[in-house]
Amino acid sequence: EEITKAFKHLANKYHPDKNRDKIDWATNEMINLNIAYTTITSQRFGDSSLDVASNKPQYGKQDNYDPDAYSTDDSEYSLSEEELTKKFVKIRESAKEGLYRYFQYGLYNHIQREKIINRGRYNEIVFIIRKCYHDLKGLRTVTNDKEFIEHFDVFRLMLFNFYKASECVNILDSYSNINEVEAYRLYKKGDDCLHISHKEIFYDRHNRGHFKKELVYPLLLEAENYFKGTLQKFTSSTWAVETKIKQAYALSLKNYIKLFFSE
Fold this sequence. Notes:
Elements (H helix, E strand, L loop, with lengths): L1 H13 L8 H20 L38 H24 L5 H4 L2 H24 L6 H21 L11 H31 L4 H21 L6 H21 L3
């Protein structure tokens, strides 16, 4: 909460709308501020104390991994396929419950999230997702089964990118610079497609009883195209940082659907 408050204070100070006599400088400052904010908030997932297998090797902080880099000595791995499946299902259900509550209480709306009761709810949900993230990080180190590892990593990366996307704070829609206006409009179109998609995946389908995959997948592709277009046309926009985060989340959702909702 302190970080978000500080970010908003600095954004109101450095935003191009507040510095119309030096737009280029202010835009660069705002981009740096966005990068700093997302870097700091991402560290919320960096605590290894929640790993369920901290005595096992972990791969890097940037989520780059090479399954073949791990030892394939079966004596190192004591969990059976059935045990791994049970643990994964438990972790996945816990994460899905947290994601469901995120939409149930409308916490994607930052104004709604700032209400006192919702601050606590959001922090609880982040804790659940963060714990699941670390549980999966530990679980992947107790097996050399590439199929299991793929499922763990796809789900884990999706959780991480969900959190980063949820922390994107939109500060002031600039109306003084046409490039900023157009960048925001293109970004917003992609964000709207992305919102419909992940709300369907984690909330609407559970209430309805079936999944509209035919709705979600095209929307995710459309979101990716909007984000790609934003980054191509407005590389130096203050919306570039948020766009990259949402683009990564859309891709991880697409990979999640491919793997977990295949025929």
